[in-house]
Amino acid sequence: MGQIKFDLPGEEILSPGHFACPGCGATLTMRYVLKALGRKTIVVIPACCWSVIDGPVPYSAAGVPVFHTAFESAASTASGIKAGLEIQGDHETTVVAFAGDGGTFDIGLQALSGAAERNEDFIYVCYDNEAYMNTGIQRSSATPFWAWTTTTPTESPKAEKKKNIVEILAAHRIPYLATASVAYPDDMIAKIQRAKEIKGTRFIHVFSPCPPGWKFEPEDSIKISRMAVESRIFPLFEVFNGRDYKLTREPAGTPVRDYLKSQGRFRHLKESDIQQIQSNVDEEWERLKGKLTFQVESRGKSHLHGVVDPERNPPMRRAIRK
Ligand SMILES: Cc1ncc(C[n+]2csc(CCOP(=O)(O)OP(=O)(O)O)c2C)c(N)n1
Ligand code: SF4
Ligand SMILES: [Mg+2]
């Protein structure tokens, strides 16, 4: 595949002196989030790899104020910080909860659901590396079906499917949610910038590869992320008000086999397991297709925007329906 070059907008806010492993998707995610939001941002980080990546006190690689909070409380802490800023008359600063999949799909879900139900005014970014990486690669409810982790060894890999966090958040009817991938930084930055313009709870679910946790070489992070999108394992889309679904990239529909073969955590899979995973992915894709409200945006041609509920949010340009 030829080289793709991007002109990434925005200032480089994340400093290079961080503690992440090479090829860390979670760190690229933070880099793009900060580029998209700028310096008037406060980041809330619960216990996760990013508690370490940011650096030891008094150092911080993030380049913006960071509030390190308890594992289960990213969404409630972000709600409180936003409320405090409002009381001080600061209506400008963006508050971002930045949490892993364990802190989002599992232990932080109650606080997140409460905040989403109240439509608290912050952006929640879940960097999903599909396990509890910081404590040694334990299974989370975001771990994919049949994957190896240290708590789901190859003799009994994870027998449950990945929890559909996007559908859970969509059921809260929040104004904006989107999936994003570090392999498509232009798409991710556009989504974060769109989220910034909307008031209320906004949720971004980012596919964030982890070389030591998934067992692959750091230089393959982007290739693997691209394979996840193109095989429809992790489609890129947006949901407005829990109702209007819009695909932002038409996936090629490549077989899941290449993706699975690229990582040691799937090394134990038999051909029948791969077929099972392919049929699971096909089923989810058909479900998603059935929900799409919008045409796919072809770069530089159409200008489709979602409809945001005017009662909860400032009006946006109307979308062109199918
Ligand atoms: C209440 C509580 N339980 C357990 C822990 C230990 N702990 C710290 S980070 C972490 C894993 C976090 O996983 P995830 O949210 O997926 O982020 P990642 O480490 O993968 O970046 C765990 C279990 C904790 N800090 N607090
Ligand atoms: S263990 Fe994974 S998520 Fe954590 S810093 Fe290393 S690459 Fe990033
Ligand atoms: Mg994780």
Describe the overall structure.
This protein has helices at residues 25-37, 49-53, 74-87, 102-106, 109-117, 165-170, 185-197, 211-214, 221-230, 256-261, 271-291; strands at 41-45, 66-68, 94-100, 123-128, 176-181, 202-207, 237-240, 244-247. With 322 residues, it is α/β, with parallel strands linked by helices. The protein has a single domain, classed as Thiamin diphosphate (ThDP)-binding fold, Pyr/PP domains (Rossmann fold, 3-Layer(aba) Sandwich), CATH 3.40.50.970. An eight-stranded mixed beta sheet has the order 2-1-3-4-6-5-7-8, sandwiched between helices. A hairpin with a 3-residue loop joins strand 7 (237-240) and strand 8 (244-247). Helix 1 (25-37) crosses helix 7 and helix 3 (74-87) packs parallel to helix 5 (109-117). Residues 299-322 have low confidence and may be disordered. Thiamine diphosphate binds next to helix 4.
Please sum up the structure shown.
The protein is of the alpha/beta class.
